[in-house]
Write a structure and sequence with these properties.
The complex is a heterodimer. Chain A is mainly alpha-helical. Chain A folds into two domains: about 1-55 and about 185-395, no CATH class; about 65-165. Chain A has 16 helices and four strands. A four-stranded mixed sheet of chain A has the order 2-1-3-4. In chain A, helix 8 packs parallel to helix 11 (about 280-305) and helix 11 (about 280-305) crosses helix 12 (about 310-320). The two termini of chain A are about 40 Å apart. By secondary structure, chain B is of the alpha/beta class. Chain B has a domain at about 1-85 and about 150-235: P-loop containing nucleotide triphosphate hydrolases (Rossmann fold, 3-Layer(aba) Sandwich), CATH 3.40.50. A six-stranded mixed sheet of chain B has the order 6-7-8-3-9-10, with helices on both faces. In chain B, strands 2-1-4-5 form a four-stranded antiparallel sheet, covered by helices on one side. Classes of the chains: A mainly alpha, B alpha/beta. The interface between A and B is medium-sized, with 30 and 32 residues.
Chain lengths: ~400, ~240
């Protein structure tokens, strides 16, 4: 009992000293409590606002579309005008115009439009656009819907004039029933949110992890430290605890920032619902806790390999790209989440957070799988790092 | 008391320590003298269990370093070659940290720390952060940190390295004081005047081996040279790496 108490006291001593020392370091503080946790929400809210406003603008604003051969189809142009699309001056090379992004879409009407129309033949108009410009999508859709609507309307009128019912020509109609809820629409846009959280944890602990292993070694303080009658794993435990506390604090700041910032995202304007409140924050924190330990251990492990502060910084910047993988995978190739995926560190947290954003509760099984899987990975990394700490090489700086 | 028996340590092909044996007794200052690269630091590192010897035995107060390294470290106060202070902590906080790691209760800690601050005459720097300390101030802090748990055995690796005349004198007096308190003091140096003036016993190391283990007087007698300097050169076999 007495022994156990003594052991805890030693770890606590190491922990308190590391926390105290790093609270005095401006760079660590800025990274852990300002740039790390606040940059994410800030960039996020700016991006979202720009995107949303642009979408809203395009759907409502009057639009000018260059038209080649406007004089051949006055009625079609009136129909477009009625739909809020005004014809602009003709351009010489429609293909180049859209490629150079001078216009989202160009309409070309052939000179024989009038002749064919009056003969009752089917005529063709051309829309030039570049589908790789995601930005142009809304405009293209709007113009082409207007033209198709006009065509249907004219077709119906011709049938009626011949004494036929318009349904003769269109025996089948598709009625679209979109099952997306306001929340699930939001998910598409917030696919990168989990990455922001992971990065925040990473940044919050990074300078500590470097300072406590590679930094101590570079400053040659590891040798006198290890001359104390304390087992090396206890030093590691105290150091890991300090790193974990800093990264958890970072995560809390960022969750708070997102909760505040969530109020300013005009999500409801495009029919989305977004809940970044207490319930969301508490769940994210729970899912992330074992990840905090895993990242702390991984960072210390990598830093223990490095000979200098600078070298450790380089390695850790590379390690920072690893959490990007599940986020990128999930946003580019939608997969159907299976329960076992929750046990995979990073992927599990990612799926869980996306599920919360979608407004579905995360089941107890999924939470347990997520916590257990990541904790196991954390334990293994801690043990490997302990092994590294025991090496003779670690303490010797020169 | 520190006993070293037939220590060996190799790094790859290089035999850094190749059969070192000596005894450092209580109430004596034992000097480990040798040119740069002779194996002094490696020998000391094996004493304070930072490194494991390939072969041989280290006994501190009769405790075998191989079987109970923690108990050995508890008996030792160590000033390593790397002083490594925490620059964002004050001198006092640096000392307190090591005292707590040694497991000292808080009251005893305060008494010991204050006594050392006084003995080393560092009252004026005790509450300053160690960033920007002079070499002498750094060594003082590191020594206070190493001795705060009142160890019977004190190991100092090149303690006067980089110190000016005044700081060196003060440190030598402090070492004599440690000896008069009955402690076993073992220090390494490549400066023979220092070793000659301070030591009760001199262990000369060259190329990882002990080439002499005598009192200063015996050393002079054995070599037949009048001055210690000539005696050392004769023992080591070359003038390389020794400073007057």
């Amino acid at each position: 009992m007495n022994n156990k108490l003594h052991c805890t006291r030693t770890i606590l001593t190491v922990f308190l000293k590391e926390v105290k020392e790093n609270l005095r370091d401006r760079r660590t503080l800025t990274s852990a409590f300002l740039t790390g946790p606040l940059l994410g929400p800030l960039i996020f809210v700016m991006l979202i606002n720009v995107t949303l406003n642009r979408e809203l603008d395009k759907a409502e604003k009057p639009l000018t579309v260059p038209v080649i051969g406007a004089e051949y189809a006055p009625n079609l142009l009136s129909a477009l005008k009625a739909g809020g699309v005004s014809p602009g001056p003709a351009v010489a090379d429609p293909a180049r115009t859209v490629q150079k992004m001078d216009a989202d879409v160009v309409l070309r009407i052939a000179p024989d439009y009038g002749k064919s129309w009056s003969k009752g033949e089917s005529v063709q108009v051309e829309l030039f656009y570049d589908s790789s410009q995601r930005d142009a999508g809304t405009t293209v859709e709007r113009v082409s819907n207007l033209i198709e609507g006009y065509a249907r309307q004219q077709g119906a009128m011709r049938l009626v004039a011949r004494g036929l019912s318009p349904s003769t020509a269109w025996p089948l109609k598709v009625a679209k029933r979109d099952q997306a809820t306001p929340q699930s629409r939001a998910v598409l846009m917030f696919a990168m949110l989990p990455y922001f959280f992971v990065i925040t944890i990473f940044m919050g602990g990074m300078y500590l992890a470097i300072d406590l292993t590679a930094g101590e070694r570079e400053r040659q303080s590891l040798e006198p430290l290890f001359a104390n009658p304390v087992a090396r794993w206890k030093f590691l435990c105290g150091k890991l605890a300090a790193i974990a506390v800093f990264s958890t604090a970072s995560l809390l700041v960022t969750l708070l920032a997102f909760a505040v910032v969530g109020q300013f995202i005009p999500a409801e304007k495009i029919g989305m619902e977004l809940d970044l409140g207490v319930h969301f924050a508490a769940n994210v924190l729970l899912l992330m806790l074992p990840l905090v330990l895993l990242l702390a251990a991984l960072q210390s492990m990598v830093a223990a390999f490095a000979k200098s502060y600078r070298e450790a910084q380089t390695y850790l910047s590379l390690l920072m790209l690893v959490p990007l993988i599940p986020s990128a995978l999930l946003s580019f190739m939608p997969i159907k989440p299976q329960d076992w995926m929750y046990a995979v560190p990073l992927l599990g947290q990612n799926l869980g957070i996306m599920q919360l954003l979608r407004g579905d509760p995360v089941t107890a099984t999924q939470i347990v799988l997520c916590l257990a899987g990541t904790s196991l990975a954390a334990l293994i990394s801690v043990l490997v790092t302990m092994q590294l700490y025991r090496s003779e090489r670690l303490a010797i700086s020169a | 008391m520190i006993e070293v028996r037939d220590l060996h340590k190799a790094f790859g092909e290089v035999k850094a320590v190749d059969g070192v044996s000596f005894t450092a007794r209580d109430g004596e200052i034992t000097g480990l003298l040798g040119p740069n690269g002779a194996g002094k630091t490696t020998t000391l590192r094996m004493l304070y269990t930072l490194m494991k010897p390939d072969r041989g035995q280290v006994l501190v107060e009769g405790i075998d370093a191989a079987t109970d390294p923690l108990a050995v470290r508890r008996q030792l106060g160590v000033l390593p070659d790397a002083r490594g202070l925490y620059k964002r902590l004050s001198a006092r906080e640096n000392i307190d940290y090591f005292a707590r790691l040694q497991g000292l209760p808080e009251e005893l800690l305060a008494t010991r720390r204050d006594a050392l601050i006084e003995a080393l005459e560092m009252q004026d720097i005790a509450d300053r952060r160690t960033e920007g300390f002079s070499q002498g101030q750094r060594v003082k802090t590191a020594i206070a940190r190493a001795l705060v748990h009142d160890p019977r055995n004190v190991i100092l690796d090149e303690p006067t390295n980089g110190l000016d005349v005044m700081a060196t004198r003060a440190l030598r007096q402090f070492m004599t004081k440690l000896k008069s308190e009955g402690r076993c003091v073992l220090f390494s140096s490549h400066i023979m005047q220092e070793v000659g003036a301070l030591c009760d016993r001199i262990v000369v190391i060259a190329n990882g081996r002990v080439v002499a283990d005598e009192t200063p007087d015996a050393l002079r007698e054995q070599t037949g040279e009048a001055s210690l300097e000539d005696a050392f050169v004769k023992i080591i076999g070359s003038e390389e790496g020794l400073a007057a």
